[in-house]
Design a protein that fits this description.
Blueprint lengths: L2 E10 L8 E10 L9 E6 L2 H20 L7 E6 L4 E7 L21 H10 L4 H12 L3 H7 L3 H12 L6 H22 L10 H12 L5 H8 L9 H8 L7 H14 L1 H8 L5 H12 L6 H5 L1
Parallel strand pairs: 3-4
Antiparallel strand pairs: 1-2, 2-3, 4-5
């Protein structure tokens, strides 16, 4: 007669790196019985497939013992992936199921409300409280606030960058958030470094966002020079001026470039005039290419 089965699994590991470690407690009982039998612990399984195989093997092993009238011993089991079976590693007969008992030689500790309040005042702002403050104070989405406050040094970096913004607009603050969650965290992941170790100064990020906001540079140019800011003593403004990357906003200068682009593409111009308006984006792209990304996109569109 088959038995009912109970098992509890505890998994741990780094799924980003593809590593997994899982322990599972397994016990069986006769149908109709109120209590499960003695449990065993299957240790250190390293894949979902092996978890499935190990559970099946240990369940069948315990069912076999119960049906033969033999006891299930409280012990730690290992799973042999090559043979597909569990085997005993060590006994837990004296472990008392990891229960803990009072130590008679330890004196009781009394915590007073006054002491708790003193400790509470010394505790730094906790993650959830800081997340909620970011949402209310900086008007960023819940998702952004959760990501930015997951690590204290990232939250500190964000606040430093926001405080150093010259133009403290909602768009500027959101741009700081977007850069940290995008380019900055991508670098952290690639290099396996924290936000301090990648050597980006928060005030450099602030100045980069300011240059975008005051239309000195475009988003494309900002992306192009972002990696040059890592560990640099030069500010974003100095890099932009040194390389002649200041955004072109002069209408007459842009009109000259636009006329050249239109003249060089008569076929597309004819198609555009015939109603293929999607080619508008083609012409804008050609102007941006001709100006090496320096043209102000909005000015070109206008």
């Amino acid at each position: 007669m088959r038995k009912l089965v109970k098992y509890l699994g505890i998994c741990d590991g780094n799924m980003e790196e593809g590593s997994l470690r899982c322990d599972a407690n397994v016990s069986v009982r006769l149908r109709g019985a109120k209590k499960f039998g003695q449990k065993t612990e299957v240790k250190n399984m390293n894949s979902f497939r092996n978890v499935q195989r190990a559970l099946k093997s240990e369940i069948e092993r315990q069912i076999g013992l119960v049906e033969l009238g033999e006891p299930v011993i409280h012990q730690t089991m290992l799973f042999d992936a090559n043979k597909g079976v569990t085997r005993a590693m060590r006994s837990k007969e004296e472990a008392h199921d990891y229960r803990y008992f009072p130590e008679p030689d330890l004196l009781p500790v009394t915590i007073t409300p006054k002491y708790l309040e003193e400790v509470r005042k010394e505790i730094p702002e906790l993650q959830h409280a800081r997340r909620d403050r970011f949402i209310n104070e900086y008007k960023i989405p819940f998702y952004d606030a959760g990501v930015l406050t997951a690590e204290k040094i990232v939250a500190d970096f964000f606040e430093d960058a926001v405080q150093n913004l010259t133009i403290k607009s909602n768009e500027g603050i959101k741009a700081v958030s977007n850069y940290i969650m995008g380019d900055v965290m991508r670098l952290m992941s690639e290099r396996k470094e924290n936000i301090v170790q990648i050597r980006l100064k928060p005030w450099h990020l602030s100045e980069l966002i300011d240059l975008i906001q005051d239309k000195t540079i475009s988003n494309k140019i900002a992306k192009d020079i972002f990696s040059d800011l890592l560990g640099s003593e030069e500010s974003p403004k100095q890099i932009v001026e040194k390389r002649g990357l200041i955004q072109v906003t002069d209408v007459e200068t842009l009109r000259i470039t636009i006329r050249e682009v239109v003249t060089k593409n008569p076929d597309n111009l004819t198609k555009y005039k015939a109603g293929k308006t999607a080619l508008f984006g083609f012409f804008v792209g050609q102007v941006m290419k001709a100006t090496e990304g320096k043209a102000n996109p909005q000015a070109v569109n206008d």
